[in-house]
Amino acid sequence: MNGSIEKELNILIDRYPSLLVCRDDIEAAYRVLEECYLNGGKLLAAGNGGSAADAEHIVGELMKGFKLPRDVSPEYSEKLIEADLEMGEVLAKNLQGTLPAIALDGHPALSTAYMNDCEPLLCFSQQVNGYGTENDVFFGISTSGNSKNILYASVTAKAKGMKVIGLTGQKHSRLKELSDVCISVPDTETYRIQELHLPVYHCLCLMLEHRFFDE
Q1: CA angle 132, 138, 141 (to 5 degrees)
Q2: Count of domains forming the chain
């Protein structure tokens, strides 16, 4: 494993010793995400309530700089300036490299239309069906691991040939059964599970940033 990636994982365990039991699964989830991005894929993330906020948070860390600078390539900078000198210079200076990710809770018009016209529990599944491709990953966040809309989306992802990463609590769950990798943090109380989810996905985002943007 890359030294910077190993370092981030060690820092996580040092700060949150209870997550030692999840170390192998966190590393495995990172490997799934690394392969996804190496193959030109994207991440589709979803959750409910606080976990919906976590899905948005993950996308925010992947779609822009987290800790490292992410300057666009010189080749892309040239193309921006060729497209328009004045605006291209501003774009070349300020745009950042991305790891493509979409939070499926962030489309209220689509979601409410589908929920009103069709089956409400399939609102995430419909988006996985539309956005998902074989190289993508579905990241399902559920403190119980049994949220029906996340389970339906996971099944849809598997049918599309996608990998599924679950982020849950300690109890065995249906999401764990459906996931290629499931990170089950060691707590059973909802708010405590959520408190452990954040450092886990921060670590994943940091490791990915080191892998793809650390020069």
Answers
A1: 145
A2: 2
